[in-house]
Every structure is written in structure tokens, then in C-alpha cells.
């Protein structure tokens, strides 16, 4: 009897599977059991691989390191396949992991990076349905033209180019219709699976990833929130004439549809595009650093998804100036005042190679005894370089390899550290790694000018904070004078570096040398 029931159940399951996969109106991903089963199976296979593949090999041996790298790679590929199959939230979390270049083993970051270009696309019918439900009209009633092929597709939405009835060219960001319903269930599933894995591998500390997704995903799924962020950052950084943020058209925007001014350009990591269009690569890198230093240290309101698809560059034909176009304002981190001040002072200590203050402020930010590792994670430099001064020498190829290798060697300590630091730090670390990736592509990483810009912003931020806490007019004047002198010193140092690297500087040095030998 039991055998007959099992045969019948198998026949029903097989018939249902064939029907679901063959029916173009039904997507297997709509069924929770499919998504859950796929996630459980992938987690089980990855766990089994780690448990068995390294069991009989001596820890620390060359063979162990080789096998561990192979397991990392296989596991990363399985994780990528799971993300592509389950889509939505899974791709979003996979992209987040792929951005942690100097915090996770290279096998994971290299494999998961492709998720930025493998996001799913909604069909034309699904797009029409979302616009109809949210705006109450058909596409042809709202637009003179609407390009069916999206300009780009991401984990949560896709963007189409369109022309409004009044002739304005716009970018229309439309949320994938099933993401809202699936996201909360997906996060709960990830949380349960990570808890199970932690029971098997006690050193596995990735609950911070789920906590971040719980907090940030609802905000990213609210496009009205994204529109407000765009307007806030545009106003906040209005003094930077090189920054362009698309204008929001509120009359045609909802929680799932966002209409913006259409802007285009080359991706910020495309050095060849900049050279073809006469854009100064060093100027772009310097301005990007200024932009993020201002957001992090001075304003405490940080755009946390600066991957190359969200940061474009374009040369203005009229003025000849190069503009940075900042897109996708769904994910911002708001920094508390106390956190921001500790972070400012930590970076000041790192730039000055003041190890006592590096230890002090790292501990205040939750690093504890792992403060040397924390300093290396923040700067993506070796502990030797941190001690010597991160602004003294650029990153060498061997040092970069060392840092990436250490990400694998110290993975348990890194995950423990990520679990202990304030939640505000997590998105900053991701942002740091994305910005470093851009600098590496442009060959401008760890330039002296980037540290000078950071120093300026830290000095301004700390001075503003100190003035706000002082009730004495004399004390406030003293703080302002100290600030002015510190900024003047930085300007003088920058002038020295410019002279040193310029033709004029070489002439001056040659002249001084000639005068010295003449006397």
C-alpha cells in the first residue's frame, strides 16, 4: 500500500513539474517549496564539501591550502547558481558578498562579481502590469515612446529609456513584480540556513549579513525613499559642480516606479572610455574621493552602492568639464555623530601612523584585540604598511596578493570582527572595497591626493563637532584657528607634491641644486 502511494505521489510530482516548467505563464520560482528546496540542497552540498574534502589533510600544509581553495571555488560557483536561480533577494545578497574584495576569499568575490551582469529581466507583460497597477494608465498613454529593452537590469528592478508626452527624455525604473512578496520569506530562509551552518561550523559568523538585509531591503524596495535620498544628496553636495544627480519626477513616481531625468555616460572604471573622450582619469579619481570623503566624514550620509554601473562619467560639450553622475540612491547609510567622530579620528591616526590612537579608536569601534586586522581591513594594506604610514608608498602587486591571501587565511577572525563592529561599519567596508576596485581599474589607488582629501574632511568634521560642543567664544575661535592652520599645512604639502611632480618643480630643484654647487 505504502509503495503504491509513493508511486502515485512520484507520478503526481513528475507530472506537476513537467506542467510547471512547460507552462509559459507559470514560473517555478513563484512556488516557495521550489525556492526553499533549492536553497536547502545547495547549503547541504556546500556544507558536506567543506566537512569531507579537508578532513584527512594536515592543516596548514600546501595540499590543505590547495584543496581549501578548490572547495572555496566549488562552493562559490554553487552559491552563484543558487542566486541566479532564486533571483531577487538572493542576487542582492550575492552581489553584496561579491563586493567584499579584501574581506572574503578571492574565489568567492571573483565568482560572485558576475551577478552584477546576470540579474534577471522582467517581461514586457510584467512591466506593463506594474505600470498599470501603480500609475493607473497604459504605457502608450504615459509615453510617446518606451524602449522595450531595458538599459540595465538589477536584482530588484530594471531601467527603461522613455519619452514623456511633453518631449522630456526620462529613465523609468520599474521594480520586478515578485520581489516584494518573496523578499521577507527569502531573508527568513537565509537566516534559518545560516543558523544551521553555524551549529556545524562554530567559527562561521555571517549573521550580520542577514541583519543587514533585514534592515536595508525594505528601504531599497521603496522607490519613494530612493527619490528622497537622491534629492537630499544633490542638495547636500551642491557645492561640487562636477556632481550630477538625476532629477526626480514625483508626479509619475510610486513605491515601485521611479521616473528620473535621463543621464548617460561611461562607467567610472572604464579608463579606455575616459582616454577616448579626453577625460582626465586622475581628476575623476580625485573627485570621487572628495565626494565620498565629504559624505562619510562631514555629512554622515553615505551612498553605499558605488559599483561602476551606478557611477558614470561624461564630458560636458559646452564647458569641457568632466561630470560624475551618481545613480541608484536606494541604499544609504546614516552615521551617528559618535560613530562618525571615532571613524574620523581613526583615519587621522591611520594616515599619521599613530599606532596608539589606531588601537584606541579601533577598540572604540568594536575591534577589540583584533585591531591590527581591523586596520588592515579598512585600508586594504598590510600591517607593515599601516605601521610605516599608508600614504608613504603606493600598493605594490605583492602587497595586494598578500592582502587577498590573508582574507582566506583569517576568514574566521574577519567574520567574528564583522559580527562585533557597529552595524554602520558594514556598509562602509563594502563601500570602501567598491571604491578601491574603481581606483585599481583606473590605476590611481592609494594616491597621496586621496589621503589629503580625507585629512581635510576629517579636520573639518572634528572641528565642527568641537565647536558645537563648546560654549566659550574664545575656545571656538581657538578651534577655528587650529583648523585653518591644519588645512593650510595640507594645502602647502599638496603644493609641494605638485611641484615635485611637475616640470616647473624639476626646474626649481635643478636651479637650487646648481646654486648650491656654485657656492
Characterization of this structure:
Pfam families: ABC1. GO terms for molecular function: ATP binding; protein kinase activity. The chain has four domains: 21-119 and 182-206, no CATH class; 124-178 and 220-278 and 309-330, Phosphorylase Kinase, domain 1, CATH 3.30.200; 279-308 and 331-469, no CATH class; 471-518, no CATH class. With 519 residues, it is an alpha+beta fold. The chain contains 22 helices and eleven strands. α2 (32-53) packs parallel to α8 (179-200), α3 (62-86) runs antiparallel to α4 (89-98) and α14 (355-364) crosses α15.
What is the secondary structure topology, with strand pairs?
Layout: H1 2-22, H2 32-53, H3 62-86, H4 89-98, H5 106-112, H6 124-135, H7 139-142, E1 143-146, E2 152-153, E3 157-164, E4 169-175, H8 179-200, H9 207-220, H10 223-236, E5 243-244, E6 257-261, E7 266-267, H11 271-276, H12 281-299, E8 301-303, E9 311-315, E10 322-326, E11 332-334, H13 337-352, H14 355-364, H15 371-379, H16 383-388, H17 397-409, H18 411-420, H19 423-442, H20 448-469, H21 473-501, H22 503-518
Parallel strand pairs: 5-10
Antiparallel strand pairs: 1-3, 2-3, 3-4, 4-6, 7-9, 8-11, 9-10
